[in-house]
Design brief:
Layout: E1 2-6, E2 9-17, H1 23-34, H2 42-47, E3 57-62, E4 67-78, E5 81-91, H3 100-114, E6 119-123, H4 126-129, E7 135-136, E8 142-143, E9 153-157, E10 169-170, E11 172-173, H5 180-185
Parallel strand pairs: 5-6, 8-10
Antiparallel strand pairs: 1-2, 2-3, 3-4, 4-5, 4-11, 6-9, 7-9
């Protein structure tokens, strides 16, 4: 059980793998956080028709079972390299700024690293994702197949590899099945 404090309010919560019963809460929370037009954003085009990585789908629930936040990672590739696309990350608006999102991102990146992924991409604010080690993707040789703001497209090397030793190119949706064993073997 983790916790976040804002003023005198304490919110106890747990980060877990998403369960089937969490599905009913995810889209309403994403709509609340980003609006229904979120599905027209560039990163959603990479997710269309592709299932998220099951071992990298997380929910945050309060100690009484209230659904507080969600984070999913999606399979993408750079050439033959299996990689992840982080997001969307959404936290109940009344709980934003209490550290739940940061704990969720840290947890997810640590899990992706443990599963053997070497690259993770995100389309988001530098001030938020930079502290985790994300760098702007374009100057490092990465691009997306859809237009995206250069100051929001970011990448992190999860296994402490130098970017010069990692494949470069245009990120594409991973159309095959992705299992944790496959990533570790690659």
């Amino acid at each position: 059980m983790a916790g976040a404090t804002a003023g005198s309010t304490m919110c106890d919560y747990a980060i877990t793998l998403q369960a089937p019963e969490d599905e009913q809460h995810i889209d309403p929370l994403l709509d609340l956080a980003f609006g229904q037009s979120r599905i027209s954003r560039p990163s959603y085009m990479l997710r269309a028709g592709v299932a998220p990585i099951e071992d990298l789908c997380f929910s945050v629930k309060s100690s009484n079972g209230e659904f507080l936040a969600t984070l999913r990672f999606w399979p993408v590739s750079i050439g033959d390299e299996k990689a992840t696309l982080l997001g969307p990350l959404a936290v109940q608006p009344s709980l934003q700024g209490q550290g739940i999102g940061k704990a969720l991102v840290s947890h997810g990146l640590a899990r992706a690293k443990k599963l053997g992924y070497r690259l993770c991409f995100v389309v988001g604010e530098q001030f938020y994702y930079g502290p985790y080690g994300f760098k702007l993707g374009h100057p490092l040789g990465y691009d997306m197949p859809v237009p995206v703001s250069a100051d929001k497209f970011q990448v992190i090397a999860l296994q402490d590899d130098e970017f010069s030793n990692l494949p470069k190119g245009v990120m594409q949706p991973w159309l095959g099945t992705v299992t944790s064993a496959e990533v570790k073997e690659a």
